Amino acid sequence: MGAGHDHGASSLGERHRGRLWIALILTTGFMLVEVAGGWYANSLALFSDAGHMATDALGIAMALAAIIAVRRAGARPRQTFGLYRLEVLAALANTVLLFGVAIWVLVESISRFDEPPEVKSTPMLIIAVIGLLTNVVSLMILRSGAKESLNVRGAYFEVLGDMLGSLAVIVAAILIATTGWWYADPILATAVGLFILPRAARLGRDALRILLQSAPAGIDIPDVDATLREIPGVVDVHDLHIWTLTSGMDVVSAHLSIDSDGRLASVLTDARTKLHDQYGIDHATLQVEPTAANTCHTPSW
Question: SS3 string of the chain?
Fold first, then answer.
């Protein structure tokens, strides 16, 4: 006997599509400004921040593409879970892009330490201030969605990195303008590159956890097992699996052995309620069978 339960498995990313579009337009527009400014001012710090913003724009675009694909796909005969994992794949691709940009910035920065070129500090400062304001607006747009969606969270962290990158460029521009210390440009570019790396690693780790179907970080499997065993009528819990389908959507499946057929409805209700109230899991597939039936067979894998 089995039962599936779902309170509406709609992608959380869909709710934040409008915010992502605004962030994409802001990020892409200012990235082009930084590229032009970096070329005019001969500033590696501006180029590095523009490269970071380019990966932000690509990451946000991939997140939007994944959300749109999920919305249009619907239920397909051979894709019974839909296309929710596209969101996670987009986040993983974004991780690769972030690592690539960070490594390029670090290599280019090191090459400039031997003989740092002259940098035009005034346009560098003006562009960095505009970039800072743009990033603040984007952060405000993405902040609420970052708590629910992996891709929105990735975009949020990247914009946060951009904001700190803009601050770094401002500091470098002021140092160059007041002291003529050209080393400020490659040093601050290096700092931006080093800031990108751990955030890229964290985003990639979260995406891999989902793709490997690891249990959600905030859920203790033995505790879930004990909770289900405490339900009146349950005598055994086995084949318990908990994983994340996409950001904000945890899924559980389990076999529950009960002492009599008469408790089937109450056990299902209690199990669903506890999974929702204590662990925030709304999609549960529970196979319930009387102990006497002995119909459950443990798979060899």
Answer: CEEEECCCCCCHHHHCHHHHHHHHHHHHHHHHHHHHHHHHHCCHHHHHHHHHHHHHHHHHHHHHHHHHHHHHHCCECCECCCCCHHHHHHHHHHHHHHHHHHHHHHHHHHHHCCCCCCCCHHHHHHHHHHHHHHHHHHHHHHCCHHHCCHHHHHHHHHHHHHHHHHHHHHHHHHHHHHHCCCCHHHHHHHHHHHHHHHHHHHHHHHHHHHHCCCCCCCCCHHHHHHHHHCCCCEEEEEEEEEEEEECCEEEEEEEEEECCHHHHHHHHHHHHHHHHHHHCCCEEEEEEEEHHHCCCCCCCC
